[in-house]
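INFO  loader      accepted 1 record
INFO  loader      residues=570
INFO  predictor   begin
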Amino acid sequence: MAYRWVYSEPESVESVRELKQKLGVPDEIARLLVLRNVRSFDDAKTFFRPETVELHDPFLMRDMEAAADRLSAAVRGTEKVLIYGDYDVDGTTATALLYLFLKQFGADVSYYIPHRFKEGYGISSDGVQHAIDEGVDLVVSVDCGISAVEEAEVLRKNGVDLIVCDHHTVGEVLPDAVAVLDPKRPDCGYPFDGLSGAGVGFKLAQAATRKLGLPPDTVEGFLDLVAVSIASDIVPVVGENRMMMREGLDLINRQPRPGIRALMDACNMKPGQVSTTDIVFNIGPRINAAGRMGDASLAVELMISQEPAGAARRAGELEQINRKRRKTDSQTMEEAQQRLEERYDIDEISSMVLFDPGWHLGVIGIVASRLVDRFYRPVVMLSLVDGMVKGSARSIKGFNIYDALRECDDLLVQFGGHEYAAGLTMEEEKLPEFRHRLDEIAKSSLSENDFEPELSIDAPLDLDQVDRKFWKLLSQFEPFGPGNSKPVFASQGVEVVGVPAIVGKGHLKMQLRQNGSSVFDAIGFNMHEYMPVVRESGGGPLDVAFVIEENFWRERRSLQLQLRDVKKGG
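INFO  predictor   done
INFO  writer      dumping tokens
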């Protein structure tokens, strides 16, 4: 895929020069900091050395006083508490966090995770009935519940209290609950609204700890679970999230709990080497696999495991489920691409709506995202579940898929989501009209340039500047994520050393140098299609965009360029 390179520009050259002088860092490092709104020595200290003592007071969140009072009363009164979580990584880590937090006090606590396909997202009628049948006194929802108006009413009428801990967009009507914790509430004055679901659960645990008269470190040991949720749920890694993410990563690398250690062993990761990227691409997908393929309770069981042997057994089960998920994912991707080739001329369409009654509902969202990455068009992947067409939509910059679905409201039974991702349900007979209308909406709102993805470049960089000292500074930008992405550099006039090759499953591998610099290994994952660009250069210079990584191989560390794009030089 060809990218249009767009260089990020700091607000002023002078601000970069001043920060460079104050910190004594290279120009490129100062530029990266200014692009991340770091403009002073104090800003840099907070950015590079965030501390948990700087976390916001949990009682700044609307309804926190009532929530903390109710939860601490449940602990003191030995009431039955049910943690009700979502089936994704954020929901299961949040469930494990509050379960373990309450269990350490000997509380009578249990948890409930809805089945993705049988119950769907949020507090379900089955979940409500389970709480009533079990004689629960208090339900605490995590990563869901903000829209559970009817379900909250049923719980209230049956004498069950509800605390909602959520971070999703708030509707017009709030559930009638003891407390509704959501930093996105319009009437909530909490200073940071980018918390994950587990982050909101952590704030509740912080507040309850204070109500119970216990020291702050009572709850800080759960920041590893918060870190996994932040990385996996793609929330902004800035402000408070950055502080919690950094401390959580330190816990994972220094003293991983049995469940996380078992996942690390399954991924051949050692303590001290786990990064945000490892969570996103290795730990998170394995936790998520349980919910995608059926019952997410196994993921919670793993994270609350106290014995290494039990944790290893459950991690092995998750590994098997994840392998099945990957196989299903790969097969679905192949089938989707085959349908595209058979039925569409990619140059003639502005969107893709693909349907197969046999596709697995748990993987079509992943496949839709991959199709967007490959073809850079809005994609809707649909399957048939209980006689209804259900699926996931993913979009590109400049096309709000939620607004597009709203224009098709008369064709849909229900839908929900946001600008780049959504879910939808419709009757099968409405599918042809939906496919036609969505493409017309896309055609009318997208220009030819919109189908050429942008690649944001943080800074130009000569390869002779890349050394251990530069890497040491760059590595302190961790943890990475939205709002603090891995810096992307661009080098022009780069020379290929030796013979480039395709390795693994379509990865481009070669060695590069520039104007007499050291030779660097470079890898472009799934970039086999770039080989003609490299060959057609005829040994001439290339322009490359990349991020810098540290590679571990057989106890040896080396710096590696992970390619993002390759163009013929000049």
